Amino acid sequence: MKPAPVFDLSVIVVSYNNAPEITSCLCSIQAACGALRYETYVVDNASNDGCAELVAQNFPDITLIASPVNLGFAAGNNLAFAHVRGRYIALINPDARPAAESLAEAVAWMDEHAQIGLAGGQLLDEEGHNQPSARCFPSLLNDFLAISGLAAKFANNRFFGRFDRTWANPAEAAQVDWVPGAFAIIRHQALRQVGHFDERFFLYYEEVDLCRRLKRAGYQIWYQPQWQAVHIGGVSSRRVAGEHFNRHGSQLSLWRMRSTLLYYRKHHGWLIAKLDNLLEQIWHFARQCRNAWFSQRAQAKEKAQESTALRRLLQQAWGDTAGGQRSPPTPW
After folding, report:
1. Dist. CA 56–CA 61, nearest whole Å
2. 329: which DSSP letter?
3. Of 238, 261, 279, which residue sits at a domain end?
4. Pseudo-torsion of CA 38, 44, 50, 56, nearest 10°?
5. What is the mean pLDDT of the chain?
6. Are 51 and 183 in the same domain?
7. What is the dihedral of CA 142, 143, 149, 155, to 10 degrees?
8. In this predicted model, what pLDDT tens digit does every residue of 155-166 receive, in sequence order?
9. Does residue 301 lie in a domain region?
């Protein structure tokens, strides 16, 4: 039998080379928890910038778990899941700063809504602009709308803006498919029921997969804009040397492609995984041809070269994962 929770909330921060951001993140968590009984874990994924040492020196009340290797987001959180003692678990990215009392408000709200397994707050950039904070599950249609630019061009349209819900009023709470793991709260009982993160997802799609499993188990996923956090986004990914970084999505391209295949193969089978990979390859081939053949501008040449590189990465991702069947050895 599991011991009874002794805290209202367990907060987990998974860090990787986040020394510049970690202090403001942890200080904001203290203010966000208010009068809650809470505990905080920092799982440091083998940072080489002194992040773990900084936490150990300046935050003695926080439990530091220093991994000798980079485990990724899913396995890093799972490492802390084995120790948490809260009724709820909050996931906070190291480049996020929750607003004062936001986590205390989240716990109170979750207590009033027993059917909700996981919820996320509103993410804002440093200028106060809204970031995508609630999304629909990935699909071939949603991926096409995103990579074609139609989702961005017709962001206020309910059909074209469906994936990131850009048509919706960000000030209104809503039941959604999934929310980002940058600022989220999970019912511990629900997590025990469906299991921890799938560690095949080294980075990206792990929260999508978890939300899908929670919904299958009968729980709801909600977006609640009453809780806000400033979120820089993609900070750790930018510090990974030698990998293509997509500045529009603040993601490492190859890692995102691998996780996309793992997700589609797990939840939709080989055919959908293959079609999605081909869809993106065909799009980048068309983009490559258009920019290489019909424009002499230097910017167009750069876009053509980028599309060529991304097509190679898509092919590599298919091979690395055996068509979405396996995860490459960690760390990626």
Report:
1. 9
2. S
3. 238
4. 30
5. 93
6. yes
7. 30
8. 999 999 999 999
9. yes
